[in-house]
User: What shape does this take?
Amino acid sequence: MERWADSYELHNTKPASTSVAPSISVAKLDVDRPPNLTHTRVSGDFGGTLFREWNDLLRIAHIQAFNKAGSFEALQAATLARIRKGAHTVEGFRFIPDIGVSLQGVDANHAWEYALRLAKFLGVSVKAEVEWRNNPKAARPGERATLVWP
Assistant: This one.
């Protein structure tokens, strides 16, 4: 019996595979007309700074844009977001002490739209990796994609 088992293993054992697992294909989305981004997680890079949430992307974009714009008024002209001078914490505003401006939080769709506009204003790259949650209301439940500009 042992000889039979040894013979079977010798002739029927497949060599260990040396192939690499196939990479998962991730769709590239149209940055100017992405599908509905509601119910997504996000992470990425805006002008060399990493982010892990939609409103974090917006905060980073506004800090960089303020540094270029140089004033609240110039930033206000460059952005589509609702901003206020100074510290405000009502109506969804969050204070950004780095620039002395309060920024109103927004949904994922507006966060992308506003950040893209500021990336174009600054001439910097932005890359967002999005993953739709497994939610029946999501545009693409369970799927992943990227938004990359330029």
In short: Helices lie at 2-12, 54-69, 72-78, 108-122.
